[in-house]
Amino acid sequence: MNPNATSENPRDFLRDQGFSDYTAEDHATWARLASRQRAILEGRVVDTFLEGLDRLGISGEGIPDFRVMNERLMAATGWEVVAVPGLVPDIVFFKLLATRKFPAGYWIRKPEQIDYIEEPDVFHDVYGHVPLIMQRVYADYLEEYGRAGLEAARHGTLHRLARLYWYTVEFGLAQTPQGLRIVGAGIASSPGETVFALESPSPNRIGFDLGRVMRTRYRIDDYQESYFVLDGPDAWPRLDISTLIPLWRELDREHDLEPGDVLGSDRVLTRGSGAYHREKVRA
Ligand code: HBI
Ligand code: FE
């Protein structure tokens, strides 16, 4: 069915991965991306991410076969990866997560788009997102996120859930005994942002707070101006609805924050210089 249609039924968006249709060039694109990432992630991403890659058999050699990957994922946390053509409607996305299905684009970027794509492809979705789903605490957080999303749709607070996803699942950092590490898939699937998020003096790095994050707009087309830092690699927030509803009500009385804003009440780990985005504006 036409993916632009307004169906809210996940089944209308699922398809077969079409594993045998990938070309040698497709697998070579994966291999190039995966080997580049592996080298740069060591010591920068949480250790459980690299363990997840290994346990899933996600290799640097080629695009993984979802059937093989899903046997291991299902055994570990009861999750499964399902193939979709691209972005699915929010409600469909939440329904899938709430039933422990992670939607992944089946297509892979062309060699000339190696560093930037507008919609998530199989490399971002599988390499970036799936390794942590091998971990129970994370797997449970993602399911809870899906459930909270369905509630948010009824309360008119979808934008708050989108911000939460953005600043945790996609662009989260975490404190670990070894120092600051990456947990977000958007960072872990991008070589440029892997280094920028941890090492650049430009962005703010702010201790995670659920309400603070839900107030904060985000950039979709460039590195983040602020990253939020979980207190530990497993310190994902609980999203029970009885806490979220009063929180949403409180936030509706406050103005939104811009991506680079820093508040007096923030737990600031790094006050960014802002140099990176300032240069961009001038260029
Ligand atoms: N669809 N396939 C796919 N992948 C996503 O990450 C995704 C989506 N639809 C909606 C969406 N994300 C976001 O708007 C969520 O943060 C709500
Ligand atoms: Fe993503």
From TrEMBL:
InterPro entries: ArAA_hydroxylase, ArAA_hydroxylase_Fe/CU_BS, ArAA_hydroxylase_sf, Aro-AA_hydroxylase_C_sf, Aromatic-AA_hydroxylase_C, Phe-4-hydroxylase_mono. The gene is phhA. This is Phenylalanine-4-hydroxylase. Its EC number is 1.14.16.1. The keyword Cell inner membrane does not apply. Its cofactor is Fe(2+). CDD domains: pro_PheOH. Pfam families: Biopterin_H. PANTHER family: AROMATIC AMINO ACID HYDROXYLASE, PHENYLALANINE-4-HYDROXYLASE. Residues 1-283 form the Biopterin-dependent aromatic amino acid hydroxylase family profile domain.
